[in-house]
Amino acid sequence: MKAKLLFMMFVMFIYVSNLFPLAVFSSLIEEDGHKGRYRQKLEEIINTMSGKDFDIQRLSEEQKLHFERFRDVTVKMAAQTVVNSKILVFDVDDTLSEDARMTPVSDDLLDIFISFLLNGKSVYLVTAAYEGIAFRSILDPLVQRILKSNNSELLLNCLFNNFVLYALQGAARYVFDSNKKRFSLDKEYSKKYVLQDKLDIQFNKAITDAIKEIWTDYELTVNPITSETEDLKNEARNGLSQIQITFKGDHPPLRDKTKEIEILCKEIEFFFKNEEKPDAKVSLWDDKTLAICRSDKQSAVKRIMEDISRRDDTSLSEVAEEVIAFGDRCYTQIPEGGDTGFVLGKDGVKHKFVDLGLGDQNMLQLLCQKNSPKCLWERQDLNLEDIKKRGFFPSIASDETSTPAHKITLNILKQACDKLNSAS
Q: Which residues are CB-contacts of 314 (< 8 A; sequence separation ≥ 6)?
C-alpha cells in the first residue's frame, strides 16, 4: 500500500512538473502569436495610410474592416503588454473616468485595480487636473471597496506601497495614509513644485500683451496645492501650484496659434526665472486652456521611474522597460500638452504607451505620409520606427461616440486581468 502511494505521488510530481512548463510554453507561444499578428497588421495599416489619396475620414468598407481587425489585434497585444509590465501609468480624465466627471468609475475597473495590486503591479495616476476628480471618481471608491473586502489588510498595504496619484501635471503627489485610511498630500514632495506661496498672481505687461496676441478675452484662475478633500471649500492651502489661462468667446483654436504661444512661453519662463522658479513651463490643455506649472507629465513619469530605480537598485532603462502609460491625448501640434509626455519621454528615457484618442491617429498618419517631416515635434528620435516599437493605437479610425477612450481602456485592462487570473 505504501509503495503504491509513493508511486502515485511520483506520477503526480512528474505530471505537475511537466504541466507547469507546458503552460508557460503555451503562454509564450500565444504571446508570440499576438506579436506576429500585431506587427503584420501594423505594417498593413502603415502601408494603407502611406497611400497618396488616403483619407481617414472617407474609408471604403474594405478599409473599415481592415482597421477594425487592426484595433482588435491591438487591444489583445496591449493587454498582453499590461500583463508583462509591472508599472502602469494612467491619465485620469477620459482615459479612466468619463469626461472629467466626479462620478465613481465602474466596480469592474476598481476590481481590476485590486487584481493588479494583488499581482504585484504598481499603479500611478498622472493628471493635469487638481486632485478632486481622481479622489471622487477613483481613489475614494477604491478605498471603500477594499475596506469591505476579505483581503482589506493586505490590500491597504498594497495601496500604501503601489498606488499613487500625481495631480497638477505631477506638481502634487498624494499617497495612501494607513492611519487615516485615505490618500493624503505628500507635503515634502509637493512643496518642491510650488510656483509661489501666495495665491494671487500679477503678471507683467509683456505677458499680458503676449496673451492678448492669442485672444483678448481670457480669464486667469489659480490651482493651489491642497491637503484635504472632504470639503473642497475649506481645504488647507499649501501654495500656488498651477495657473490656468482660459480663452473665452469665439476664439481660434490654440493649435493654430503656435507662434504666439511660443512667444508667451518665453515671456512666462523669463518671468518665473526672475522669481527663482526657472523650471516653470507652459502646457496646452485643450483648444481653449493653457496651464503654467513647474512640472509636466514626462517629468512626473521620470520621477516615478527614478524612485523605483533607487528602491530596487536597478537601472533607469530597465525600469522603463516595465512601464506602460495610457493617455487619450498623446498627440497635439504643440508638444507641451495633453498626454504628449507619455510619448516624449524625458532625457532619452522612453517607455511604452497606449494612445487612446481618436484625434491622435494624426500622430501615426503624420509619420506615414511620404511628404511628412518623418519625426514628431522636430525630435529626430521620435520617428516611425520608435513609435512602432513603443506605441499602441486601439482607437484608430473608430467612432468616438460608440467607443470612448475610457471604454477602450476598460476593455484592454479586462483582457489583461483575465489573463492574469487564468495564469494564477
A: 308
